[in-house]
Amino acid sequence: MKCFERVVLAHIQDSIPDTLDPLQYAYRHNRSTSDAVAAALHYSLSHLENKDSYIRMLFVDYSSAFNTVIPHKLTHKLSTLGLHPTLCDWLLDFLTGRPQSVRISNRTSASITTYIGTPQGCVLSPILYTLFTHDCVASHKDNIILKFADDTAVIGRITGGDEAAYRREVTRLVSWCDDNNLILNTDKTKELIVDMRKERRPHRPLFIRELEVERVSSFKYLGVHISEDLTWSLNTKQLVRKAQQRLYFLRRLRRFGMSPVILSNFYNCVIESLLTSCITVWYSSLTVMDRKCLQRVVKTAEKITNSPLHSLQNIYNHRVQRKAASIIKDPTHPQHGLFKPLPSGRRYRSMMCKTSRLKNSFFPTAIRVLNQK
Question: Which InterPro entries does the UniProt entry name for this protein (predicted)?
């Protein structure tokens, strides 16, 4: 069945335009969590360049999002997008009346039949969910709705204290969830306010269905800790803590007499992958102390493995160039337009940045790196 699902998946991908729902970063070619986080930060930092401005970021949590998709609504949306009626009918039959049971060893539970949801582990489930939510978009130019599968962030760019558009956007999102049977979990939905103004005024709380949304000083978004001051000390601290825990296993492997090759492979797979997750987003904005803390982990691993390891600076430089090149080659990427070639065709137009926060973020830094080649 999975082989046939892959055939259907390829057909759906060929039938849907690449420009559909550009701010959905999951399950798409040349998109990743680092793209989504970099976009969220760029939209925020660019707005903070303006006078009397601040950001409200709402991180929405859905309860069992994939399990609440209504097949009839899904196929109606697919038909509206232009998919063939026969395919829509097949998908409706595929998603409804599915028997499910649980097996543990040689025991199997009683079977139940499900009529809603997209099956977990199904080849088609990811793309069906993203197509189901493609119409969840911002209605006002000052608001951004970023999506990575069911991880949704609403970014309200506030100027002069006028939050009306942002609050209407949240109300509209709640109504959209009700219309599409998505259960918005208010208890796990959090709000982060980024306000760099010298004279800060108290911010009115946000309510969803008469419940106050908890305001937090930091939030872990797609694996990256974003703080209300947009610094990266907390993210660095968490990375170092986890890396030091994993160094313990590296030491144990050395005591077991593993070769340097095996130790290096373990480091690359388990520790380096942790330290470099979304590194293009945050590394250029780190303080000197934070960089030293991270590099100290690498130095410790070098002593344990008794072999040279790549520095984080070199990894960062390589990944910035690779990521920038992939965005430039992809005209459907939401941030493709930020890389504007000069008439010479050899360099790119630098971004105007008033603050070091924006200057050290990914996109301005990537342009500088490309221009220095």
Answer: AlkB_hom8_N (IPR015095), DNA/RNA_pol_sf (IPR043502), RT_dom (IPR000477)
Q: What is the CA radius of gyration of the chain?
A: 23
3-state secondary structure of 180: coil
Closest Cα partner for 2 from 171, 121, 141, 88?
A: 121
Q: Count the helix, strand and coil residues of the chain and give each as a percent rounded to the nearest 5.
A: 45, 15, 35
Query: Hey, which residues does 191 pair with through a beta bridge?
Result: 58, 215
Asked if residue 271 lies in contact with residue 313, where contact means CB atoms within 8 angstroms, the answer is: no
CA torsion sign for 27, 32, 35, 40 is positive
Q: Of 73, 44, 369, which Cα lies nearest the Cα of 230?
A: 44
Task: Summarize the confidence of residues 159-188 as an average pLDDT.
Answer: 96
194 contacts 46 by C-beta, under 8 angstroms:
no
Q: What is the pLDDT of residue 250?
A: 97
Q: 177-211 burial by CB neighbour count: b if 16+ within 10 A, else e?
A: beebebebebeebbbbbbeeeeeeeeeeebebeee
CB distance 71 to 95 below 8 Å: yes
- Per-residue model confidence as pLDDT tens digits over 229-242: 999 999 999 999 99
Task: Count CB neighbours of 108 within 10 A.
Answer: 10
Q: Which residues contact 239 (CB under 8 A, 6 or more apart)?
A: 274, 275, 277, 294
Can you give the pLDDT at residue 99?
Answer: 86
Convert the pLDDT of each residue in 120-142 to its tens digit.
889 999 999 999 999 999 999 99
82 burial level (CB within 10 Å; 0-12, 13-18, 19+): exposed
